């Protein structure tokens, strides 16, 4: 691949400018890749209109697609898993509604209507719909800041419905305008830290029920909670604490066994319902409700009442409701989408994130009109569903019917259920969300991710849920911006006996090429980094010249920029390159580029930079660039050729 | 480079995991590259303590470095250029102070103290210090929203000093904590659009003076201004308009000539002063001030009075002052740094952005205590300075002395200067800021940059200066985030008769390798794009399999990911790769990686992904990966080998 004559143009290959595209076509491509990367209309291509209508309906309502293929075998599996998740959904629903400072019955309502909507519109086969602890807590803390749930329960309730409505609108809107990727800006590290922090906060809140306290702080941070708990030690109720401790131990034991033996999953799944039954029986038999053990009390019989007239669009607190809706909606969406995706990957089917968002949105809009509050696909419930062998979303329908029967006939049974049992159920569920192994993994693999994770955790636990979230998202974004603002420039050296050039830090046995400085730029060149790159490149040249001077080697003659990793360049980036060119011309060096990509070549061509640098100084590979530079040195600079240079120009 | 035996490990090269670094050392490196990319302490290395002190002082006060080498020849040049810029500074200073709704004399004060501070602390040799139109307008619009300058001039004045003080504090702080790169987030395109918009708005504001109107809107958008102008056509004063038109014509003519012949720069530089003298004489002789031509009136004699006691830290409008200070400070900084850098590049010396920020900051802090408002390095004045042949910052000192003499003795001469002359000077200066050629260049080279530029322009002209700025910065950031969120994945093909693989769109004569899909990922793999990449890679595989199926070719056997352009990966990215691996395992394909960089290899190693994929499936180049895949197909899958496959495994 060496070329003895300089620039004979036969054995070297030229970096190509891609064929020009009309502006509208490239705009269309860009929009398609940005908003429709999954090409959702692919299946509609070349279909007759009737078929298109059916496909369109199936696209909106996936039940039309899998429904006709539904079999009795599937139903058997879905029946078992549906009943299993119902037994989890009832106590969890009541607990989380308490966490949101809402009437407990709302937890049951929310496990009836939304699962039916999701069964029709959702595309996951494993997701079990229900309320989640974090969104419940967030609702309580964001709405509670404006309206006291104890003093003004009706207004608080209406604002909760309104927030759910706007959460649904926002979720559906994100899906419709295909901006689902906003959810991606919650990184894995953020979610690990945030979830663990929220779980800690939720557990701390349960101290009220466990210790049987009447008064409790409205703050969620650990300092306020601890101060509140230890300022009223004389109020602690040992009966409540013992009961709570026992049930918590039982729940954790059940989880421990079902984790060890996955086929025992039902022990863990049924455990909450059995604790509720045992706890209620105990209270009923011992009349413990008269000895400081608080119980749920009366639950209204009957199905969800309509709540569409309760949406408080005219309320002075509307903006709070909207804000609460958007924040909780995004959090719920992130959890639901992540859960759906994980199980889809296990079973190897595909989930369309934007379509899921529309399903979640519709489920919450309908829910807000039927006395439900925010629902999504919680991890715990979906995992139980998956383990119980669910086949389709019919398990959600089965769960909804089980909850319906409960609402119609069984609510009186929950009268004696002690609150402390619900607290144990919440704590047991929350402890599973503190994923310290994931945090250790983050520390091992990526220190910055660990830092983001811990910031989210500390922010949630010592500040508030929102503060933790804002800190974590800001840090994640800062990281992305820092990556763009501070790209790395790497010196490349030759891997012995090849024509390959690689980073000298990664491959310590590479050799420098005398007279040449080969740098790789590791990011697109944008306004945000062009000043930095200009300074950094000039510092590279300075340092290289200093080094050569002190070692008495030959002068620096060429700067070769490997552009392989430069995905794009904007006008600021081009100006930077032009300035670098001027600068190194002034120093008496020459500039060569290796392997600029399609976008970069296109723009360099339009900006006439290719003419400025000379088409013959743009190469397809670093190896060819080095070969040409050495030939040039050999041909045009007849200076006392050291053995090194001789060897090099022959070698390449 | 082909290997006939599969994986003999002799002729292929392995991608290396870089040698491990202790955590603290890599943290130190990261901090250094992020905050100290220019290595400012390099010159202090290996120096005795006394020398270090001197170097340190010289670092803070560059005058100590160049002062001792100052010569009489230099002084001659600096004297000429200093007097030239003073002749521009006096009328411009008065005009811009009027634009900021401040007493005209402040424009002169601001050309006296700050240039002296900059001469001591600044490192640019060509920058001429002074007030700028855009920052003046912003001050007027941001402060004017809270306090009416006409009704409460003292409070307005004090808030302007306070804003200047905070601008200085903010600028210096950015430099001290080395966050100067924040300025880089104002892209070239943003600045072009923003400056043109601000210039348009400033010109529109001059219609008040040109038409001799008494009442004028406080809004800056084009709609309000036009409504204000055309609602009072009966108030227009033809005397004022004619005078303004003539002087504007003269100024533009002077600029036209000095642009055509650079050695005539002094015509343009002196033009403002001559218009002021001519205008004042004209008014003085014709008593036009009594016929509707407004004049400056009385200007107080004497040097800057101290204003340190006027800083309104206790004012209820403090937050407005701080906000105004930060916004105008950043804008001023961006202009000053850009101007300093441009001229430094012309003369091939180096400017340290962070050091310049400290100098600008100190200049404004001192200025705010001596009755000056916000100053920076305006482009027009610095260009005149440069053209007049300045050698060092002494030209600023000369200008300051000229302004001092004016303040002490010549202020009465400005009594009869007509306001309309100042308006013409502003308009002439502003028309030079509308850089339509740059906008055309943006359109040609980068449509998105053009879009950002036009958004900034439209935002400023139809909304307000702040709206335009926010829109433009948000769009620029969105672009960076979109780049990260939607990286391109490119299919690679073989360039005939080589071992090189390149993008098939850019090099249309590349050939596909049967059974292999080679993709290049064009960005670091982060949380923000990992979901997208997972979907996109799976779509690539789907499409490739569809294509192969419809053409009846051999099945897809390998996915080779070219990681050359993947600068980094975080834990979300690693999870994505693990999922892709699982996914393609399930489809019966194999995954190979080519050329992962140092950071990527390090993290993949820590996450044990290298073990999962097999060290032998990570290659140094795409060519070697293809070679190994073909050998593997040949060795382990004895299927009816088509001629194609035969040829390929021989070829590579």
Termini separation of chain A comes to 7 Å
Give the overall shape of chain A, derived from the CA principal axes.
elongated
User: Runs of chain A with pLDDT <50, length 5+?
Assistant: 1-11, 638-652
Instruction: Provide the spatial order of strands within the biggest beta sheet of chain A.
Output: 2-1-3-4-5-6
Which protein chains make the most extensive interface, counting residues with beta carbons within 8 Å of the other chain's beta carbons?
A-B, 91 and 91 residues
Rg of chain A computed from alpha carbons, rounded to a whole number of angstroms: 32 Å
Mean pLDDT of chain A: 84
| Helix vs. strand class of chain A | mainly alpha
Helix content of chain A: 55-70%
**Oligomeric form:** homodimer
Taking the sheet with the most strands of chain A, its summary is: 6 strands, mixed
Q: How many domains, in number, for the residues of chain A? A: 2
Q: Tell how many strands the DSSP assignment of chain A holds.
A: 6
InterPro entries (chains A, B): S04_transporter_CS, SLC26A/SulP_dom, SLC26A/SulP_fam, STAS_dom, STAS_dom_sf
Subcellular location (chains A, B): Membrane
Pfam families (chains A, B): STAS, Sulfate_transp
Keywords (chains A, B): Membrane, Transmembrane, Transmembrane helix
């Amino acid at each position: 691949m060496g070329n003895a004559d300089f620039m004979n143009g036969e054995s070297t290959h030229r970096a190509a400018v891609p064929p020009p595209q009309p502006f509208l076509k490239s705009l269309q491509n860009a929009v398609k890749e940005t908003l429709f990367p999954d090409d959702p209309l692919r299946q509609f291509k070349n279909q007759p209109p009737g078929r298109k209508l059916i496909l369109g309906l199936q696209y909106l309502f996936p039940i039309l697609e899998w429904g006709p293929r539904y079999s009795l075998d599937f139903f058997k599996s879905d029946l078992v898993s549906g009943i299993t998740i119902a037994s989890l959904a009832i106590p969890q629903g009541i607990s989380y509604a308490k966490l949101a400072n809402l009437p407990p019955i709302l937890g049951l309502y929310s496990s009836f209507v939304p699962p039916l909507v999701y069964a029709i519109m959702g595309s996951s086969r494993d997701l079990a719909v229900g309320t989640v602890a974090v969104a419940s807590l967030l609702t309580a803390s964001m709405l509670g800041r404006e309206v006291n749930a104890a003093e003004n329960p009706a207004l608080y309730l209406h604002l909760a419905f309104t927030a759910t409505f706007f959460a649904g609108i926002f979720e559906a809107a994100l899906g419709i305008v295909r901006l689902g990727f906003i959810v991606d800006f919650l990184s894995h590290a953020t979610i690990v830290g945030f979830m663990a922090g929220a779980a800690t906060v939720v557990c701390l809140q349960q101290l009220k029920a466990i210790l049987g306290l009447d008064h409790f702080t409205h703050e969620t941070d650990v300092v306020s909670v601890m101060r509140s708990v230890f300022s009223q030690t004389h109020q602690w109720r040992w009966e409540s604490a013992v009961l709570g401790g026992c049930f918590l131990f039982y729940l954790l034991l059940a989880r421990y066994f079902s984790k060890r033996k996955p086929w025992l999953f039902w022990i863990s799944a049924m455990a909450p319902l059995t604790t509720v039954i045992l706890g209620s029986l105990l209270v009923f038999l011992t009349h413990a409700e008269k000895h400081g053990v608080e119980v749920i009390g009366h639950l209204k019989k009957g199905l969800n009442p309509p709540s569409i007239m309760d949406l408080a669009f005219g309320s002075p607190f509307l903006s709070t409701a909207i804000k609460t809706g958007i924040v909780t909606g995004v959090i719920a969406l992130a959890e639901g989408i992540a859960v759906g995706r994980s199980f889809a990957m296990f079973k190897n089917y595909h989930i369309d994130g934007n379509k899921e968002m529309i399903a979640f949105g519709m489920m919450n809009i309908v829910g807000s009109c039927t006395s439900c509050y925010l629902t999504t696909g919680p991890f715990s419930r979906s995992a139980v569903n998956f383990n119980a062998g669910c086949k389709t979303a019919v398990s959600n329908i089965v769960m909804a019917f089980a909850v319906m029967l409960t609402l119609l006939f069984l609510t009186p049974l929950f009268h004696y259920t002690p609150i402390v049992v619900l607290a144990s159920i919440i704590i047991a569920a929350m402890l599973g969300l503190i994923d310290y192994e994931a945090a250790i993994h983050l520390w091992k693999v990526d220190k910055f991710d660990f830092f983001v994770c811990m910031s989210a955790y500390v922010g949630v636990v010592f500040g508030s849920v929102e503060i933790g979230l804002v800190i974590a998202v800001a840090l994640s974004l800062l990281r992305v911006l820092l990556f763009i603002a501070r790209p790395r420039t790497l010196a490349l050296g030759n891997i012995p006996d090849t024509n390959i050039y690689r980073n000298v830090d990664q491959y310590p046995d590479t050799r420098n090429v005398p007279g040449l400085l080969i740098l790789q730029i590791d990011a697109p060149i944008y306004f945000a980094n062009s000043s930095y790159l200009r300074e950094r490149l000039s510092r590279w040249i300075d340092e290289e010249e200093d080094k050569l001077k002190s070692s008495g080697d030959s002068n620096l003659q060429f700067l070769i920029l490997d552009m392989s990793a430069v995905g794009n360049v904007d006008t600021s980036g081009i100006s930077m390159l032009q300035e670098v060119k001027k600068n190194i011309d002034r120093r008496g060096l020459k500039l060569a580029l290796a392997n600029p990509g399609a976008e970069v070549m296109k723009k360099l061509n339009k900006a006439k930079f290719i003419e400025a640098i000379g088409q013959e100084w743009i190469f397809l590979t670093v190896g060819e660039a080095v070969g040409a530079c050495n030939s040039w040195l050999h041909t045009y600079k007849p200076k006392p050729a050291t053995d090194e240079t001789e060897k090099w120009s022959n070698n390449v």
